[in-house]
Amino acid sequence: MVANRVGRSRWAGVVAAATVVLTVVGAPQASAKHVTDYELAAWNTHGANTKNKLSLWQPQSKVFDVTDLAATSDVVALQEVGKLADFDKLVQRHMGKPYKVGFTCKIVVKMLREGRECDWTFPVNGVDEKRKVFVLRTDDVEDSDTEKGARPNMAFVVRTSTAAVRSWNYLPPVRSSAVHEGDRGLLQLVLKDNTVIYNVHADAKPAGGNVSALLKKATEATAGLDPRPTGWVMLGDLNIESKYLRAFVSFPIRVVDPGVPTHDQRIIDYLIWSDPVVLKRFTASVPATPVEFGSDHDPVTFTKKP
């Protein structure tokens, strides 16, 4: 896609802040796949329940669910995945028959946040698919009992047979009277070939107001890894239309979106990546499906551009 360079005065401060994130770090690993070789996806599941309160973690016949996205992707970045307590109930309720869904989970802690690391099995056309699931409560307090309490939490779903995982972690936001990096930080996934992927859910008010802080955080965190990767990928709900983001980033940072609205007539779910390889690019699309998506956001998939 051609970058939109039209400025917006209300983003002037963001433009200035974003200039610090354009450093390319390190040298690529000789054995590493290029990040565009992976099939990636992002979806804000809006609490991971449909309007009829059906879990999007279980196979549905009339609703597009997480298994549909995970079946065709190496890595899926999910936002608003529901409260940990609800996820634990789901694990118990939907194991075995009739859904033939199985979770085996352990409790983990990342940067003082409680999470779950699970082995997940689900059926696709009569064949069992296996994935690794990393779920994290992104705040350091208990989930709220309100509907909004289910929204901050994030997850990765990984097909480890094609995307072996080295580590995962959480980069919490700085929040003080002087500095505010937003409501949520970044969920980080590092693959064994040194590919670095960040799951993002930027602030809604002001819309995408912390994106520049998250870009800086991703660049600095990636530079601190050993061995140092050549760049990073960030995907999820940016809460700012992609055309505005293109106005204040430049190579090696690039933006790819599906070209159609993903939420409320806006394109706010997409992928950003920092990479010096000019000729390798992503293409993005919203999955074609005869059923509804079960969330107020459309999922987006990202594959290598031919």
TrEMBL record:
Q: Which InterPro entries match?
A: Endo/exonu/phosph_ase_sf (IPR036691)
| Entry-linked Gene3D superfamilies | Endonuclease/exonuclease/phosphatase
Source superkingdom: Bacteria
Q: Which residues form the signal peptide?
A: 1-32
Keywords (A to Z) from UniProt:
Endonuclease, Hydrolase, Nuclease, Signal
Any one GO MF annotation of this record: endonuclease activity
Q: What is this protein's name?
A: Endonuclease/Exonuclease/phosphatase family protein
Species, as recorded: Actinokineospora diospyrosa
